Amino acid sequence: MTQPRHAETTSPADALRTLRLLWAGLLAYTLLVFVTYARVDPSELYHVHGSGLSGGLSRAALMLCLPLALVGVVSALFFLDRALSFRPLSLVGRWHRRAVFAAVIVAFILGWWAPFTVDQDDLTVGASNITGALAVGAMLALLAVPLPARTALARVRAGAARPMRSRARVALTLAVLLMLLVSLPWVAADFGFYLSDAPLLGRIFVAERLVQGETAVHPGHHHGMDGVLLVLSFLVMLPLTARLAHTGVRALARFLACLGVTYGSYNVLQDFWHEQVWKRSADGFDFANRLYPSLSAEWGAMVLFAALLFVLLSRASRERRSDGL
Q: From CA 42, how far away is CA 312, in angstroms rounded?
C-alpha cells in the first residue's frame, strides 16, 4: 500500500543539520563578543575589569553560561530522543549510547545551573562559571559525534513533517522581524559602537545619551540581546519538536522551548523598554529585571504564556496529524 504524501518518512539528520547550523550561529556571535571585549577599553563596557585577550575570553565564557547553556538544555533532548531509539548492534555502539546519555545529563543539568553562576554586577569569569563551559562542551560533543541514524527510529509521526500553515508562517516571520528590529542597538553595542551614530537609525534609537551618568546603551553585550538569541533559537527548535519519537521527550522539549520563548521575550521587552523608553526621561513606569526565577507576577506571566503557547502548538500538531489520517 502506498503511504500518503504527508506521512512520508524523513531522516533524523534533518533536525541534526538544523541544530548544527543554529549552534554555529550562536558560537559565531560569541566570537563577536570575544573580539569586542578584547579590543574595547573595559571602562567603556559594563561591569568588567579585564582587557585584551583575557577580557575577551572572560566575557565569552559568560556567554556560554547565558544564553548558550539554556539553548543546550532543549537541544540535548533531541539527542536523548535519538538515544532512546538507538538499537546498539556492537560493544562500541553500546558504549557510544552510554556516552550520549552521560553528555545529555551534563548538558541538561548544568545547562539549568550555569545561568545562576553569572553575577550581573561583576561580569568577570570565575571558577563557578565552569558549569557553562561543561554544559556547552557536552552539547558540542553531541553535535559532533551523534548516534548513527540508521539504527535509530527515523520515522516522523504522521503529519509532523508537513509544512506550517500560512498563519503560523506569517506569525513566525513577524516574530523574527520584530526581534531583529529591536536588537539593532544591542547588535551595534556588541560590535563596540553606538547605534545613535548611524544615519537615520540614530534618530530612532537612543544609545550614547547620558542618563544618570551612564550611556543609555553601553558598548558590549546586553541581557536584552541574550533574550533575542534565546527567542530566535527556540523558535528554530519548536517546529523540530514535532519530529521527536517519544511522547514524554517531545512534550518536555516543546514546553521548555515555549518557556524559553516567553523568558527571552520578557528580557527583550524589559531591556528595550528600560533603555529606549524609560531612559529618554529617566522617569515613569519601568519593567522589573527578572533575569533569574522568582516568586513574582512577571515570572507567573512567563510560565502562564508558555503553557498557553504549549497548548496551542500541541493542538495544532494534533490537527495536522488528524488531517493526515
A: 45
CB 114 within 8 A of CB 64: yes
Task: Answer for the pair 83, 107: CB distance below 8 angstroms, yes or no.
Answer: no
261-300: per-residue pLDDT in tens?
999 999 999 999 999 999 988 788 999 999 999 999 999 9
Q: What is the pLDDT of residues 26-54, one digit of tens each?
A: 999 999 999 999 999 999 999 998 899 99
Cell, residue 206: 537612543
Q: What is the DSSP string of 163-190?
A: PPPHHHHHHHHHHHHHHHHHTHHHHHHH
Among candidate residues 120, 131, 124, the one with its CA nearest the CA of residue 59: 124
Find out whether 19 and 78 touch, Cβ atoms under 8 Å: yes
Neighbours of 257 (CB within 10 A): 28
Cα 286 from Cα 275, distance rounded (Å): 10
Q: Output the CA torsion sign for 244, 141, 21, 237.
A: positive
CA 235 – CA 313 distance, rounded (Å): 12
Dihedral over Cα of 317, 319, 323, 325: its sign: positive
Read out DSSP for 61-104? HHHIIIIIHHHHHHHHHHHHHHHHH----SHHHHHHHHHHHHHH
